[in-house]
Amino acid sequence: MKRKIITMLLLISMTCTVLISSGSAARAADDAAADTGATETDAAEDENSLDAEELTLEELKESFALTVETSGLSGEELYEKGKQYEEGDGVAQWYAMSMAYYEAAVNAGNEDAVAAVEGLNADKETMMDNSPDGQGDIFEFFRTGVTAGQAGEYEKAYAIFYDDAFFFEDPLYRGIGSLGDLLRDGTGVEQDVEKAVTIYEFNAKVLGKGNGYTSLGLLYEAETGTYPGIEKSIDKAIEYFLLSYQDKQLKETDFKGPRYAADYFDTGYSHDDGTKEEPDYMKAEEGYIIASEGNGRTFDGTACYKLGTYYEEGREGVAQDYEKAAEYYQKAVSDPNVHATMLGIPQTYLTLGRFYENGLGVEKDLDMAVSYYKTALEAAQENLELVNAAGNEAAQSVYDEAAADLERLDE
Fold this sequence. Notes:
Elements: H1 2-18, H2 25-31, E1 32-34, H3 40-45, H4 57-63, E2 66-68, H5 75-87, H6 95-107, H7 111-129, H8 137-150, H9 154-167, H10 174-185, H11 193-206, H12 210-221, H13 234-246, H14 257-267, E3 269-270, E4 276-277, H15 281-293, H16 301-313, H17 322-332, H18 345-358, H19 366-384, H20 392-410
Antiparallel strand pairs: 1-2, 3-4
Helix pairs in contact: 1-4, 5-6, 6-7, 8-9, 9-10, 10-11, 11-12, 12-13, 13-14, 14-15, 15-16, 16-17, 17-18, 18-19, 19-20
Pfam family, one: Sel1
Keywords: Signal
Protein name: TPR repeat protein
């Protein structure tokens, strides 16, 4: 069974590596391929036998191991290939691929490659020294992959997520789940939902990460046909979102899952059998609060924004409270891990501007109001420049309103 498991995940690596960009498949096939390590017969024997719970982390890492095509290349040529990937010269910058070529060049007797390997290892050590608890530099590096994906630069995103997980060895293994997302959506790689599910289940059941369940929930809330083999089920989606923080076996709960579940309680929803659930604002409030508390390192800024709207406007069973609204709006944007492209964050800056302009829940302060309006303008502009940002849809409205508010206060 273990041999079948490894074989299937090796095939994931083949898919991701060879097809990292639909416009550069030939180059990728020439430059890199996965370590096959097992026969096609094993893979074909039982394609659906993969069980994420039987995998170890080392087996997953091994399944994504890169090899390089060295045939006919001199040590100097291999070194130049490594340098090309290290610098991102004509290809996506990819440190793991660079290291693979440098090591091949060392084996071919190239002395310059020895120093290059040492340099990359030093860069890796520096990165992780500046990344306490998986935050700091490694989080910023991971975020560049998210931004690349939002901009539609999927080849670049793949390389960053790969490096995050397997080169720098992010202790939170954020890149693993993001590689699953690329497979799920078929963005930059051939769509393979079954393999994406394997990664999500590995995250949830082996690594004990709640975001694996959240990713499974997102699969099931999509319309049938979006993801081959997955039939839409809101009941399953909500079940997975709840498991993302309620499963007792988790080592780390997710903070997005409770917000996604709360969104359904906020609006009401239909069960798979057609029966309807009316909005339950108190249950939604509970989910948003859990999401806003986070996992000890960061939290869900969008959930804080939602709580701000609850307390600003009031809901059935939830009293209006401007001070609490201001508190949650401020928390929504208080952590550097909360990014301007997250859903609701540009609106949060805009709302805080109005709170300070009018003294709602805070002391009136026009300078603070102007500062928040300017930040709202910048956040909206950042969203408008990206094609896949969560806050993109409402960005133009925020931009126009913030610009008008600044013009009005400047008069």
